[in-house]
Every structure is written in C-alpha cells, then in structure tokens.
C-alpha cells in the first residue's frame, strides 16, 4: 500500500512542462541569465524553440550603460562579462570534464576565450582549433556547470574591436554581484600600474582608493572584496565607506607579482618571481622564473608556506583566478599552477618545482564541429 501511495504522490508532484500556457514560455526565457541557459532552453523542443528569439540575447553586459573614461583617458568603456563553465559529455564513460570560458555581447553572440589571456581563442593561439567561429561552437550536446563569472573593461570606440580589453587594466570586479540592487553595484578596477579605482554604476567619475599604494590582485571571498598589495599585505574593502582595512600581516614576498586564490575556504597568495615587467600590457614579453605559495592562517594571523595543494590545481588567468580539483578535469595535474608566461601557457609543479608546457585541459576538442550551427 505504501508503495502505491508513493507512486501516486510522484505523479501528483510531476509537472507537464509542455502543458504550461504558451504565454509563459517567453516569460521564462527572459528570466534566463546566460546565453548558454537560453540555448539549452531553445533546444528542449520545437515549441520552446519557436517561442524565443532566433538570436539569443541573454547577457548582463547590455544591462549597463557606457562607463566614463578612467583617469588620463578619453575613451568610454563597457563592462564585459565572461563565464567559466565545466563541460562534460553525457555519453562519456569518464566523470572528468573540461573547462571553457565563454562571453557574449551585442557584437559577438557567443565566443570562446583563453582563460589565461582573456583573449578570443582565435587571437591567443598560433594554431587555434580549426573551427572557432560561433556558428561552429557546439554546446547543446554537453552538460554545463556554471563555475564563476568575471568582468573586464573594454574599449568602446570604432577604432578598437569591442572584445579587446584595456591593456592597462589588470583586473575588474563588479561588486556586489548581479543579485544585488543596481543602485548598490560598483565596478572596482586595478588600473595604471595597480592603482585601485572604483566607480558606482551611474556615476560620471572614477575614484582612486589609497592613492599612496599599488595593488597586484583582488578577489571576492566569502562575500567580501579583498586586495593584495605589492608586498603581500591583504586588505578588505568596505564597499559603503570605500575604506581599506588591513586583514593580514605583511608577507614580504620578494616576487614581482602577487595573485590571490580561494581554495577550500582559505585565501592563498601566489608570489610570482618574474623577469621583465608583469604590469606591462599583455603583449609585452615577461617570464615567470619561480613561484612560491602561501596560505593565510586567519585564526592566528600568520602566513604558512605551502608545498602541497591537496589534490587541487590553481589557474592564474589575466582577469581572474580559480582552483580546480585536478582529478575532475582532463589534463589537469594536482599540486600544479597554470599561468601565462613568455607569451604562452605554462605550468609549475610544487612537487618538484619544475616548469613545463601544460597538458590541454581546455577546451574540449569535440566542441567544434563543422556541421553544427547555432
């Protein structure tokens, strides 16, 4: 009897989505926040496909007006969003996946980007995959997991392609996130050799925070914005008062570039020893020659040297950093760091302190198919 009741309850709880009133389908599609979500919605059935526009327009970049020029510039800017996904083919016998970085705006419906340089894949590789046109990008046959989003500042003039980032900008973060009210959102940008700039959406001028200091990186951790300066001191930013509050002791790292990474609920600083000038535009030559990893012990307020990432790998992209559980991704090795060096992707293994060319753990080769069309 109990089994029959359970089956009856399941039938009552099931929803016949195709039986929904037709006027609800466009309303549902308009609430999808990413292009990929909209593409999957349209691919569910012919009825849902016909109820939405043929050219997907789900994007957060169009929700923002043009941003005013930063100091010492007369070029208006646009906030450009990219999203990092984990992709997995459902027919694969392995549970491993790939990572892929996608972006969408009015000029380019869907493009794949290099997570190390934040450039379109076709521009960032000497030998790119053969079919990198958006019309040959096959996503519908994959399961996708949205890992994180990042933002960057881009030129908005006829002289520059709209997907070209400002070379002087090290990083940009929209804070708080898109789930917060528009009035409270601010754009934080490391610009002009690490000066921390902030712009409230709707304002006409940027403000420089702590003009006496320069910063290497920033990250959102546990809902709070953190920055790290040239000597490795982490501070958090009060988004209301725009005051910086010291959060860690001075690291006194001797490397030229500090990167912040969150992994397992902890904050890490990767100290990169570099020959050349890492704050130069992305097309200038510089090379990483050594790497040190430190974890902040927040309870005792001290730095700990790290020799083992516990099965994780760190990816240090130009516009964002993230950690991966290596066993979940093809070609990704544990206890390794991946970054851009000497105009190419490189990896550094903490086990033996060796540099090498990384295995390709992105993008999935079968994404590109001549016969597929969005």
Give the helix proportion (percent range). Answer: under 10%
Percentage beta strand: 35-45%
Give the uncertain stretches in residue-range form: 55-63, 123-135, 369-374
Determine Rg (CA atoms, Å).
22 Å
CATH classification class of the largest domain: Mainly Beta
User: What strand line-up does the widest sheet have?
Assistant: 18-17-19-20-21
How many separate helices?
5
Total discrete domains: 2
Give the CATH topology of the largest domain. Answer: Neuraminidase
| Mean of pLDDT | 78
Anisotropy-based shape: globular
Structural class: mainly beta
Q: Mind explaining what this structure looks like?
A:
The N and C termini lie far apart (49 Å). The chain has a five-stranded mixed sheet with strand order 18-17-19-20-21, with no helix packed on it. Strands 3-2-1-4 form a four-stranded antiparallel sheet. A four-stranded antiparallel sheet has the order 5-6-7-8, with no helix packed on it. It has helices spanning 2-13, 24-30, 35-42, 46-50, 121-124; strands at residues 77-88, 98-103, 111-113, 143-155, 169-175, 186-191, 195-200, 207-209, 215-221, 224-229, 234-238, 243-246, 257-263, 266-276, 286-297, 302-306, 312-316, 321-325, 336-341, 344-349, 354-356. The chain is globular. Strand 17 and strand 18 form a beta hairpin. The protein has two domains: 2-50, no CATH class; 64-363, Neuraminidase. The chain contains five helices and 21 strands. The protein has 374 residues and is mainly beta. Mean pLDDT is 78; it is low at 55-63, 123-135 and 369-374.
């Amino acid at each position: 009897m109990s089994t029959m009741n359970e089956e009856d309850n399941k039938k009552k709880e099931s929803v016949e989505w195709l039986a929904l009133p037709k006027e609800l389908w466009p309303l549902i599609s308009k609430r999808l926040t990413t292009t990929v979500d909209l593409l999957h919605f349209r691919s569910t059935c012919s009825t849902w496909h016909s109820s939405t526009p043929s050219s997907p327009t789900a994007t957060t970049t169009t929700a923002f007006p043009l941003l005013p020029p930063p100091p010492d510039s007369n070029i208006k800017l646009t906030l450009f969003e990219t999203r990092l996904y984990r992709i997995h083919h459902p027919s694969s016998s392995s549970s491993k996946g790939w990572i892929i970085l996608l972006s969408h705006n009015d000029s380019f419906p869907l493009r794949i980007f290099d997570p190390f340089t934040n450039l379109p894949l076709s521009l960032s590789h000497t030998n790119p995959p053969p079919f990198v046109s958006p019309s040959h990008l096959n996503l519908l046959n994959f399961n996708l997991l949205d890992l994180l989003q990042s933002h960057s500042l881009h030129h908005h003039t006829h002289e520059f392609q709209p997907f070209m980032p400002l070379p002087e900008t090290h990083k940009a973060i929209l804070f708080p996130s898109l789930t917060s009210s528009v009035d409270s959102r601010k754009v934080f940008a490391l610009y002009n050799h690490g000066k921390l700039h902030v712009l409230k959406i709707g304002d006409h001028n940027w403000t420089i925070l702590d003009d006496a200091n320069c910063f290497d990186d920033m990250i959102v951790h546990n809902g709070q914005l953190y920055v790290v300066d040239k000597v490795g001191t982490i501070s958090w930013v009060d988004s209301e008062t725009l005051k910086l509050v010291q959060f860690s002791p001075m690291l006194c790292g001797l490397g030229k570039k500090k990167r912040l990474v969150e992994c397992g609920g902890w904050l890490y600083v990767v100290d990169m020893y570099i020959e050349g000038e890492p704050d130069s535009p992305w097309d200038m030559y510089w090379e990483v020659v050594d790497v040190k990893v430190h974890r902040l012990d927040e309870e005792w307020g001290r730095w700990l040297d790290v020799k083992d990432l516990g099965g994780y790998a760190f990816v240090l992209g130009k516009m964002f950093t993230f950690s991966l559980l290596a066993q979940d991704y093809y070609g990704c090795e544990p206890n390794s760091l991946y970054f851009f060096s000497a105009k190419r992707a490189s990896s550094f293994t903490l086990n033996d302190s060796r540099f090498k060319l990384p295995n390709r753990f992105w993008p999935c080769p079968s994404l590109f198919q001549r016969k597929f069309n969005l």
